[in-house]
Write a structure and sequence with these properties.
Strands 3, 4, 5, 6, 7, 8, 9, 10, 11 and 12 form a ten-stranded mixed sheet that branches. The protein has a two-stranded antiparallel sheet with strand order 1-2. It is of the alpha/beta class. It binds S-adenosylmethionine (SAM). S-adenosylmethionine binds next to helix 1 and helix 5.
Length: 324
């Protein structure tokens, strides 16, 4: 695949007639267990405490932006956030994710013995031991979602995981937040914050320049994208908002006894390929030694000697009720 890259190695390619981004579903599935480990438990616990206070006796009404193949929903069930009745609107700009999400969720529900009934192609009902969830998938861009007037002020929780680096935050974020109820919550997680490291140290100075150019390519795509984590940290302390919790959710992958999990292998190879493809002659000449760098780092994955670290942030904010 002629893949472009976005922050932290999120694999995508621009399509001529389709959505601007197209993420490899096997990468998204592999990323799930990496994200499970990375997600900040302090921020997660704060979400678990705040959500019932926000919903009160109403069914939780949740929207996810850039939901991919549906991994966050499965996490929210598995980790016990969703109890009782809920509606979950999973949105993504890429319509190709819908059949994959159906398959991913069917396999997940089947494994746990949860009934999952599809009422239509995009609507289903999921019953777990604790929750009953009306699930709706919608192919819609965050930019469009942000402009909707009919759902303004209706969601108790907006979720965005590893996606806001693809979105023009000053233009779109206020509209997304306007979809929240008074006291509604924004749970924005695994957003890249400007630092990528590969170990062991690469001989010569090439890697420094490769990573500098890699981060610059994110900026060329969207100003501020390479620092999305800290931009959100600032924006979520703006007027009408209260930052309830913030913490790191770094991706850190290291070999154990020269081996990785299957997901880690997929994830690491995808990251290295992404860096190489992003910089291979797209905007000016490729950095010196790029192909040799990628070859070496791929070989280190195969040999079980590579360590990878990328800095991400998790944030939980609340929309303050309007002043009387
Ligand atoms: C890195 S993937 C993350 C997917 C999912 N949140 C996860 O972590 O598995 C980014 C997702 O955002 C979607 N996306 C990209 N730009 C978007 C936009 N402007 N509006 C809505 N979704 C978008 C992509 O199609 C992709 O599914």
């Amino acid at each position: 695949m002629d893949a472009d890259n976005c922050a932290g190695g999120r694999l995508y390619s621009p399509l001529a007639d389709g959505p601007e981004t197209c993420f490899d579903p096997s990468y998204l599935a592999a990323k799930k267990s990496i994200d499970d480990r990375a997600l900040n438990r302090y921020v997660w616990t704060a979400l678990c405490q705040a959500l019932p206070q926000t919903t009160g006796t109403e069914p939780a009404n949740i929207v996810e932006i850039g939901a991919g193949i549906g991994t966050m929903l499965t996490r929210m069930v598995d980790w016990g956030l969703l109890t009782g009745p809920a509606t979950y609107l999973a949105t993504d700009c890429d319509g190709d994710h819908l059949p994959l999400a159906r398959r991913y969720l069917a396999a997940w529900a089947d494994e746990r013995g949860y009934p999952l009934h599809w009422l239509e192609k995009q609507r289903s009902r999921l019953c777990t031991t604790q929750a009953e969830i009306a699930l709706v998938f919608e192919t819609v861009r965050a930019e469009e979602m942000a402009c909707r007037t009919e759902s303004r002020g209706t969601f108790h929780l907006a979720v965005a995981h590893a996606v806001l680096d693809l979105i023009d935050l000053p233009a779109v974020l206020p509209g997304i937040l306007s979809q929240l109820t008074s006291n509604g919550l924004a749970y924005f997680t695994c957003h890249f914050d400007g630092a990528t490291y590969f170990l062991p140290e690469y001989p010569g100075g090439e890697e420094e320049e490769i990573l500098r150019r890699y981060h610059a390519s994110m900026e060329a795509r969207l100003t501020g994208a390479s620092n999305t984590g800290r931009r959100l940290l600032n924006m979520l302390q703006g007027p009408g908002l209260e930052l309830l919790a913030a913490g790191s959710s770094d991706w850190l992958i290291h070999p154990r006894n020269t081996t990785y999990s299957g997901d880690e292998v997929v994830f690491l190879h995808a990251l290295i390929a992404t860096v190489e493809q992003e910089l291979a002659g797209k905007s000016g000449p490729a950095p010196a030694g790029l192909a040799a760098w990628a070859r070496t780092r791929h070989q280190q994955v195969d040999m079980g000697t590579l360590t990878f670290l990328a800095r991400n942030l998790d944030l939980l904010a609340r929309r303050r009720p309007p002043l009387p």
